[in-house]
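User: Please predict the structure of the protein below. I'd like the answer in structure-token form so I can feed it into my own downstream comparison script.

Assistant: Understood. Taking the following sequence of 335 residues as input:
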Amino acid sequence: MPDERTPLRHRLLLAGGLFLLAPLIGEFLFGNQAITDVGGIVLLAPLYGGGALLIREVTRRSGRGWPTIILLAVAYGLFEEGPVDQMLWNPNYGGFPMGLVYAETHLAWLGTSVELVQEVVSLHTVWSICVPIALVEALDRGRERPQPWLGLPGLAAVSVVFAAGTAFLAYVQVVEYDFVATAGQFAGASLVIVALVVSAFTVGRRPASPVDSPAPSPWVVGGMAFGASSLYFARELVPEPPSSWPFVAAWFVLVGVVVALVLRWSRRRGWGASHRLALAGGFLLTYVWVGFEHGRYLDVSRGTELLGNVVFGLGAILLLVVAGRRVASAPAERH
């Protein structure tokens, strides 16, 4: 249940902030949408924001933590790019020759490209869901035991908005691209998504044993997140690589190293809200520079493109600074 000591207005502001922040980071900061299209957030927020808010609220209401959020975020990414907009399967999604670009890593038995799945999982898990949640929770004074923000009526309302937005976007995609995946592709994706959701509520039932050594500085944690995520996007700067498979293999190594480090550090003495914010902040700052790279492909003038990059980039940095001050001013909580 929501913490009744926290004013309803404050909790609604946090929930509304996450609802809007998820699409702003996931699409506009990333450079996928121009600043002149910011009105489109009305269509994007029910999917991105509704998904992030539902994942956050269901996780916190069940008393679970970040492992649950992360697994649900992976499920969300596959759901959005699979059954909803079908990008995983459409060879000409958005008028872009997806089938040709990802042909080398396409596996017939998988029904899609391994590299494309990696992109979907990376972008949506980290930036569409986890980073926005971490930032807004930090604005809630970085509580060590985050509480739900919405009651059952609010949760039901968000569920309806998410379902309606999802159905509308799915319909638009079918009409616009005249493409529908096979029953087998829908069934396979659905099975994976359900398995991830079930796993999300079975992992982490037993708290990991703490390690009696100090956690690294938040600056180290943030630097690692920024460096690792920047390394991931640096592959886009490699001109016409001879093969995509080395990058596919490198993705597994990079993700494994980051997960191992975070799991190890989070068990150490002193790990807390400042470290979680630093982790999210490092990832967020990567999107700031990546937005300038991706913005070059928008169908707008160079000036409009740069204006959007600067506005959204400065907004992200300002939000990170404010969140850092909130966490720093938070009273210590007993564990």
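That's the full token string. The beta strands are 106-107, 112-113, 211-214, 268-269.
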